[in-house]
């Protein structure tokens, strides 16, 4: 089947654009960039058709990477149903975003570099998804983190972009540290990193009621996932990552990279199911993140920041789903979220593009008549994310909430409340941008077809994508949960309530939002400033670290100790030299005296040593 | 008899040595040195070194010291002026300490040598025949090398001391 | 006639040591270059006496030959050294060692 073609094609695109892109015309760069992803997508479709129905895992072994003692790690790609779903999402949505980016980046500098990085990202993401062992997955994991850094800091002349890139990479690193520890423990426990072998061995192990080795491994994997998928406490990089170009936000920070954590957890389901403590931790963290991020999204004024916090919140939903055992529901939501979140970001990008860079909601308004296609597609996406009946988001979100109710009813109620808030803030953004009077100063215009085309495709998928019954597809792997109709309709109703509330606040009675904010002044400030979490991290972690580095490590050890020692050797030599040179007095008699003294000392030494025998 | 001669000439040697160190005018020192060499030649004779005694008188006392005296005359070196005056008390103290120190060395040397040996004139004769035989067989190389050395010395002395034209 | 008792060998060595010490003293304490040079000659003589003494002890003439070579070297050294002293006197017009000290640090 030649699975290796799937990631290698984008890699070739990266090499072509990266090495020679500087002198290539835009048309050629586009051909390489979009063409490689298109070919990869086509190959995915062909492979899946050839393999369907995928009853068992199809593995291709390429070569042995590490052979050390009893540890044998090979480069293997594998396709099973979970991989199939992920491959379609990554290449499909990735293709649409690549096409969109051709139009969006039209007037930007560093054109070839952008597409080179984007292709490199596709390569690493596909490696991550196709990997058959933890180490290869980690290669892809790290690689997407690198590309995220490169792309967030794409406008590298801007200070806040490079800082955001640093932040993303460093916070991810903390998660990666946890992941690495988990990998080490897996090697120690199972002697191998291959998925099939590890999971077969784990199936034979008993479920752990309290903290055992599997719990620790899965908790550490969770640390890695919170870093990559922006959960509490490592979510802080995602809002700042909006400094990158909007296609980057759509592809990496909505549809694919951030879902890597969820994918990895779903892949390791066998391990997680044996550690109930971790499962509860995952669910609680997911739920808390979903609620927390939604509250922040209520008060943001930058359209991309609203969607960023929305991403964090929706990822929380996915983790909630996985944590209560509804793995297929989590993956289903991953797919639908890829559709509507990518659409939301691309639409926001179209709006920003049409306003020549304006991102503040307060400077928008009444854009409906200027950008009809953008407005309609964004409306579809907002319906989907709010869980409006029969949209894609409705099916996936309710699958998660129903499963949560099975686990603990209070999880369901908080989830429903969060769904209401989700609907509210997303429609708040839509109403503020597209209704009312235009408050800005630019000349808004509709985007070209190359950008609106993907928007339309994604809108269709957001509306009908729910009918792709992912849990049914993943049934051999994960147990399907039962449906509960009344609960599902209840959460949909709360969603519609949220939409109506947003309408009241932002269309019917316009000044109501501002008076509300003034009334709850303190609370509003708290939420608007994202609960000062960044400032707290800064004070608690970053500043002490910087201070410690500066005073202890740099001034103390490096300049003081190491430089001091090296310089000190030189200084001592000079000092000793300046003393010793006094012997050269030029006075012959003193030389004579030294000679006599030396010979006397020598004689005494010989005498003590027993004489010359 | 041997002991008497030894004592007399040893005494002369020591006296002349002290004189060499103590005298201010270099010519007096030179003459004292000649005295030392002469007495040493007698002691060599007593030890059976006929050839060496003759060589000492001819080469050392007769040529080298004459050269010294020539140079002193040429340079018209005057008497040295003492830089610092030492009191007579310090001088006497120094002398006593010196004597004590020398006694110590004597004692050490005395103890280090076998007691049985003694010098008697006539027991051993280092004739010119023996010296010559040894010189031209076992020590031939050093002999030839010293001839080169003397050549170098001659050339060096001439180059260093000639008048700049 | 005084009885012909053998003179202990150590007496010669003690004499040699005394003369050597006197030579060292003169070498250190005198300021006139020529006197210093003569002290060196005194030291060499003392060493010659030692050689001849030990040659008697072993009843071989090797010590005499060493002594001979010492004399040869002393002669060469005296010649060249006095030439140097002459040059120094020409350049510095002094025979005091303390004043020839331009090779300071």
Please sum up the structure shown.
By secondary structure, chain A is mostly helical. Chain A has 25 helices and two strands. Helices cover 74% and strands 2% of the residues of chain C.
Notes on the structure:
- The complex is a heterotrimer of chains A (613), B (165) and C (105).
- Chain A has 613 residues and is mainly alpha-helical.
- Among the domains of chain A are: 275-528, no CATH class; 535-608.
- Helix content of chain A is 73%, strand content 3%.
- Chain A is built from 25 helices and two strands.
- Chain A has helices spanning 5-20, 26-51, 81-104, 111-130, 134-152, 159-190, 195-203, 213-228, 237-240, 246-255, 260-267, 269-273, 276-297, 303-323, 327-354, 372-386, 392-407, 409-434, 449-464, 470-473, 485-508, 512-519, 521-528, 533-580, 588-608; strands at 58-68, 71-79.
- In chain A, β1 (58-68) and β2 (71-79) form a beta hairpin.
- In chain A, α1 (5-20) runs antiparallel to α4.
- The longest helix of chain A is centred in the C-terminal third of the chain and has 48 residues, at 533-580.
- Chain A is globular.
- Chain A starts with a helix and ends in a 5-residue tail after the last helix.
- Chain B is flat and about 55 Å long.
- Chain B is mostly helical.
- Chain B is 76% helix and 1% strand.
- The longest helix of chain B is centred in the middle third of the chain and has 26 residues, at 50-75.
- The termini of chain B are far apart.
- Chain C has 105 residues and is mostly helical.
- Chain C has a domain at 31-92: Helix Hairpins (Orthogonal Bundle), CATH 1.10.287.3510.
- In chain C, 74% of the residues lie in helices and 2% in strands.
- In chain C, α2 (33-58) runs antiparallel to α3 (62-92).
- The N and C termini of chain C lie far apart (65 Å).
- The chains are: A mainly alpha (613), B mainly alpha (165), C mainly alpha (105).
């Amino acid at each position: 089947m030649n699975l290796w073609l799937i990631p290698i094609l984008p890699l070739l695109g990266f090499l072509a654009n990266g090495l020679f892109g500087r002198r290539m015309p835009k048309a050629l760069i586009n051909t390489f960039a979009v063409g490689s992803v298109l070919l990869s997508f086509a190959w995915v479709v062909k492979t899946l058709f050839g393999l369907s129905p995928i009853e068992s895992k199809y593995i291709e072994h390429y070569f042995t990477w590490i052979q050390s003692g009893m540890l044998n790690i090979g480069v293997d790609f594998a396709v099973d149903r979970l991989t199939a779903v992920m491959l379609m999402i990554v290449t499909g949505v990735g293709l649409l975003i690549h096409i969109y980016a051709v139009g969006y980046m039209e007037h930007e500098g560093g054109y070839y570099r952008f597409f080179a990085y984007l292709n490199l990202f596709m390569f690493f993401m596909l490696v991550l998804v196709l990997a058959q062992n933890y180490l290869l997955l980690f290669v892809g994991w790290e690689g997407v983190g690198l590309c995220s850094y490169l792309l967030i800091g794409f406008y590298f002349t801007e200070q806040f972009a490079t800082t955001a890139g640093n932040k993303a990479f460093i916070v991810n690193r903390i998660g990666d540290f946890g992941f690495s520890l988990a990998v080490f423990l897996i090697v120690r426990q199972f002697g191998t990193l291959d998925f099939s072998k590890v999971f077969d061995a784990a199936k034979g192990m008993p479920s752990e009621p309290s903290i055992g080795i599997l719990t620790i491994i899965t908790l550490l994997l969770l640390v890695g996932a919170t870093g990559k998928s922006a959960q509490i406490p490592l979510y802080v990089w995602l809002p700042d990552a909006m400094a990158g170009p909007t296609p980057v936000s759509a592809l990496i920070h909505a549809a694919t990279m951030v879902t890597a954590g969820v994918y990895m957890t779903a892949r390791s389901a066998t391990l997680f199911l044996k550690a109930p403590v971790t499962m509860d931790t995952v669910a609680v963290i997911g739920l808390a993140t979903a609620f927390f991020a939604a509250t922040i999204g209520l008060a943001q004024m930058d359209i991309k920041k609203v969607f960023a916090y929305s991403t964090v919140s929706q990822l929380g939903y996915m983790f909630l789903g996985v944590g209560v055992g509804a793995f297929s529901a989590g993956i289903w939501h991953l797919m639908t979220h890829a559709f509507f979140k990518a659409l939301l970001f691309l639409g926001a990008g179209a709006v920003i593009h049409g306003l020549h860079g304006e991102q503040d909601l307060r400077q928008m308004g009444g854009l409906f008549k200027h950008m009809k296609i953008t407005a309609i597609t964004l409306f579809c996406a907002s319906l989907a994310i709010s869980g409006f009946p029969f949209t894609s988001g409705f099916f996936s979100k309710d699958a998660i909430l129903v499963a949560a109710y099975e686990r603990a009813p209070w999880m369901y109620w908080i989830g429903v409340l969060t769904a209401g808030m989700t609907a509210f803030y997303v429609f708040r953004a839509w109403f503020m941008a597209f209704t009312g009077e235009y408050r800005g100063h630019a000349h808004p215009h509709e985007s070209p077809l190359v950008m609106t085309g993907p928007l339309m495709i994604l809108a269709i998928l957001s509306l009908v994508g729910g009918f792709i019954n992912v849990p049914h597809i993943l049934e051999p792997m994960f147990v399907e949960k039962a449906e509960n109709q009344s609960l599902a309709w209840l959460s949909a109703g709360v969603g519609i309530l949220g939409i109506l509330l947003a309408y009241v606040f932002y269309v019917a009675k316009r000044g109501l939002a501002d008076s509300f904010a003034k009334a709850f002044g303190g609370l509003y400030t708290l939420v608007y400033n994202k609960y000062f979490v960044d400032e707290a991290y800064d004070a608690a972690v970053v500043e002490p670290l910087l201070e410690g580095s500066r005073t202890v490590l740099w001034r103390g050890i490096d300049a003081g100790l190491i430089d001091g020692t090296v310089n000190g050797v030189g200084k001592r030599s000079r000092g000793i030299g300046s003393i010793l040179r006094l012997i050269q007095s030029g006075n012959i008699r003193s030389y004579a005296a030294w000679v006599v003294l030396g010979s006397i000392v020598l004689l005494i030494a010989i005498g003590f040593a027993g004489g010359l025998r | 008899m041997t002991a008497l001669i030894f004592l007399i000439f040893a005494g002369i040697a020591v006296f002349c040595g002290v004189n060499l160190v103590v005298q201010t005018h270099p010519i007096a020192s030179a003459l004292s040195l000649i005295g030392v060499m002469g007495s040493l030649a007698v002691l060599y004779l007593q030890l059976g070194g006929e050839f060496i005694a003759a060589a000492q008188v001819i080469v050392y006392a007769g040529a080298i010291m004459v050269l010294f005296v020539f140079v002193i005359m040429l340079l018209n070196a005057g008497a040295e002026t003492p830089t610092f005056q030492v009191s007579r008390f310090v001088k006497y103290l120094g002398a006593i300490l010196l004597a004590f120190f020398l006694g110590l060395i004597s004692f050490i040397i005395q103890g280090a040598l076998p007691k049985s040996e003694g010098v008697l004139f006539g027991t051993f004769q280092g004739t010119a025949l023996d010296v010559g035989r040894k010189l031209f067989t076992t020590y031939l190389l050093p002999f030839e090398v010293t001839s080169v050395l003397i050549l170098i010395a001659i050339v060096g002395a001439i180059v260093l001391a000639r008048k700049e034209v | 006639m005084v009885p012909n008792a053998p003179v202990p060998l150590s007496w010669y060595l003690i004499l040699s040591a005394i003369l050597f010490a006197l030579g060292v003293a003169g070498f250190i304490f005198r300021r006139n270059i020529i006197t210093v040079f003569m002290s060196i000659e005194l030291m060499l003589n003392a060493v010659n006496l030692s050689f001849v003494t030990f040659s008697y002890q072993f009843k071989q003439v090797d010590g005499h030959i060493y002594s001979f070579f010492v004399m040869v070297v002393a002669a060469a050294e005296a010649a060249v050294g006095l030439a140097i002293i002459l040059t120094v006197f020409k350049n510095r017009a002094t025979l005091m060692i303390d004043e020839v000290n331009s090779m300071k640090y």
